Amino acid sequence: MYLGIDIGTSVTKAAVFDDAGALVAVEARHTRLDSPAPGRVEQDLEEVLASVGAVARAVVAKAGTVPRLVGLTGQGDGVWLTGPDGRAVRPAISWMDSRAAPIVRRWLADGEVEKSFRRTGNAMFPGAAGPLLAWLDAEEPAGLDAADTAGYCKDAVMRRLTGVRATDVSDASLPFLDPWNRRYDTEVLDRHGLAHRAGLLAPIADPLPIGELTAEAAPLLGLPAGTPVVAGPFDLPSGALGSGVVRPGEGHLIIGTTLACQVLVDTVDTTGEAVGMTLATSTPGRWLRAMPAMVGTAALDWVLGLTGGTHEGLDGLLSASPLGARGVGCLPFFSPAGERAPFLEPAARASFHDLTVHSDRTDLTRATCEAVAYAARHCFEAAGLGGGVATCGGGTRSSAWLRIFADVLGRPIRLAPQPETGARGAVLAARAALGEDVDLAAWTAPVAVVEPDPDRVARYDELYARYRSLVDGARHGWSAV
């Protein structure tokens, strides 16, 4: 048996898998997001650790067996400042935080975002470690002085469980990794005024950080001291691995709170618009060109909350409004931090258009779901999709929305084994790092395939062109704000 733990932004999940990859048991606990001021989003490391322990103990009890190893994954980006004892020196700053937006706007204006992208294949956004470290250096330097590590969520948890201070190449990728030599790019650090803070970056364990559960941490998980623990890739690459994306050109779509679109590639391309991420994987010579948009099910949550709809009734709402939502369209940029992919614009905002007195809540709902699918297509086009698409995430529970995605993308969509695809990927990465043989095809076999309808594909091609035109026009207005 194997235990995978996925430390998400608002939910920590744990899953136990058997040797063949079958899901044996699963547990989840919500974690709190604090907002001490407008635009600021923080988390308490101790509360996150408590959630990790709670789900681990509960899922192992359900499974009735002690796992052979623990694989970790979790949210990426943000800054988790810890001291020499592994404890937080201040609350963790989430990737959702927008306090560094003025810094990003300044770096955009003076060309620093683009210059960094040309070296790393990664674009800065307000919740990335680069802008947040620059903000901390200017506004809270004492916090950085007290810390010995400015790391990421799963790495902070890994250190408390094993004492290992390290990160992996996926988390290290944004924003300071040289994607070719898999080491930190000192010039990028220097260009952003952070060279004097380079010592805060955790050592990169290639391919992954590996440790053993300490005697002190063993009671937290309810597992024997000495149990192998591996900090896998963060949630985007772990989700792709757990979905069976292993061939260059294949895409991965996470329909979650945000919308993550990734394409596995075998070359690094730093030309084109400076946007998105180039994430090193555990396999040298393979990268994920990722476009993690800020839109996703959070946009749908807002609309359903406003109109009195429910997720359980989503398929009915979508079937009650025809393709094209009776002309109603949506720009789904609901995040207060703006957008980060497939374009970077902190001032991006949502809107509906072509509403009339005849429009109803089903049209608003369908327009939002269609717009999120258009955003996915926009992201995949920017990432260079050339093959099939696998998907996972909470949004996949709606069969009607999945059909919209298939029709908008014009490609079959493979539904990955669920739930806890990220935890599955963490276990697969851990087993590989420890030298175990695994039948990847069996572990990641799709549970369903959604085929596109040719007639609907043609109609959505027209509507997508309209969407792109509206986005292009809106970007001119946002940039003037």
From TrEMBL:
SUPFAM superfamilies, per the entry: Actin-like ATPase domain (SSF53067)
InterPro entries: ATPase_NBD, Carb_kinase_FGGY, FGGY_C, FGGY_Carb_Kinase, FGGY_N
Positions of the Carbohydrate kinase FGGY N-terminal domain: 1-242
UniProt keyword annotations, A-Z: Kinase, Transferase
Pfam families membership: FGGY_C, FGGY_N
The keyword Flavoprotein is annotated on this UniProt entry: no
One Gene Ontology biological process: carbohydrate metabolic process
Molecular-function GO term, any one: kinase activity
Domain Carbohydrate kinase FGGY C-terminal: 283-433
Family stated for the protein in its record: Belongs to the FGGY kinase family.
Protein name: Sugar (Pentulose or hexulose) kinase
Organism, as annotated: Phytomonospora endophytica
